[in-house]
Amino acid sequence: MSRHMNKQKFLAEYVYEVEKDFDIDGVPASWAAPTSDGKPAHRFWDDEDDKVELRFFDDQKADGVKFFAPSHDGRFIAGSNGSSVGVIDLETKEKCMQFNGLVSTCVKLMFSPVLLESGGYTLLDVIDVEGLLQKSLDPVVAELSNSFGASSTSSLLETVREGYSDVLKKLRAGIESRDLSHVKGRTNGFNSSPFSMDGRLFLYTIQNESTQSGPRPAADLPKIIVYDVVNKCQKYVLSGHEDAIMWTAFSPDSQYIATAAWDGTFRIFSVSTGECKHVIGPTGGQCWSGAWSPDSRHVLLCGMAREDSSSETFVAVYSAETAQQVNRLEDEQLKRWVRFAAWSGRGEVAVVGEENHVWIWEPFEDKHISSFKLKVEDWLMESFAAVSEVQWADEGRLLIARAGDGTIEIWDRVANTKWRLQRPEGSGTERSVGVVRFVEQDRTLRSFSRDGFMRCYRI
């Protein structure tokens, strides 16, 4: 009898379990000390220090928020249900604006780091449809009633009301979205970094379908657009890849753009000229993801290499200036896709493999610092359970990893202590965690869930 697995079934049946915990020199991480008010390091959801309902939309349902984006200064959170975007001021917990005029369904959401010349934010005025509708129709209703009587015109007026309401809603949507820039393309996944550090440049791809089913003319191959956010125009079109582009990222100093594609190559472009400085590969297999070093001098690249008659996964660090390989991560458990990587300010790299494994590697000394692995015995659940996000916080001291079920692991790299914020067994998709952010000012971890709540945990 065949079995199937989807997200809802996975969340209903999955039991979170760790096979290998973070460690230092073979000593497993211990639980961190309880908070001042007695909260343990291992908690389950609904045992948070603070829980705030975020009403992005007036008619918001429990599972209505699909995508989240915190602003870079931590002041705002944006949420989308696919057709609208609402923005909430996290200080007041009140909605401050809403965009309804999206030209297509929202599938990803993010804030640009760039601020307006005034240094502030734009708050849009919106039309009160119902109020304007009533004010507009009142004199019409009065005149018709005097001439023909209210009962003889009520059904006709209802038709007018519905049509006029639709027109006003479209007008409101257009006004609310008048300052939104639209580009015909999409951003990449795998921890891509589409914005330059100052937020003035933005990366997106066009024609980014795979060519594995058949070749296409060069003009129709995948391309990367470097978009000038401030002047609202294309700056460069980056060409050269011959198959789907999976990862794109600006270097932290905004001097380079690195890319990875299924054509088996990585490319490094100059931001100032748009010129391709280096092509790394072909590797003999698909290329997937990467991460820049904080000083922009090196880039970590992940993909598949073919050596002799066999293929193997590789993770390697290259010089951005010379494109020469510096070191390569070697581990017998490094198999299949490497989807995410994050480089800390301490010079260590977190690498996430598809087989629910996380490695911490110091590439210049080629030293294995630590590793972590989930225990997933049902192969149908593996891809759903896999770690879907890693980030460093507190100047590289804390590693935050979010598993596929929404459980959050936090590891203190220096003290070798840990916290776990675990999803209760059986809770469904409406509790899925969309975004996790660590706020260093008050050492609080914020999680934003599809049920419309922000949950805060003191670390």
Automatic annotation (TrEMBL):
PROSITE patterns: WD_REPEATS_2, WD_REPEATS_REGION. Keywords: Repeat, WD repeat. The keyword Repeat applies. WD repeats lie at residues 238-279, 380-412. InterPro entries: WD40/YVTN_repeat-like_dom_sf, WD40_repeat_dom_sf, WD40_rpt. The keyword Repeat applies. SUPFAM superfamilies: WD40 repeat-like. PANTHER family: F-BOX AND WD REPEAT DOMAIN CONTAINING 7, WD40 REPEAT PROTEIN. This is WD40 repeat-like protein. It comes from Aureobasidium namibiae CBS 147.97.
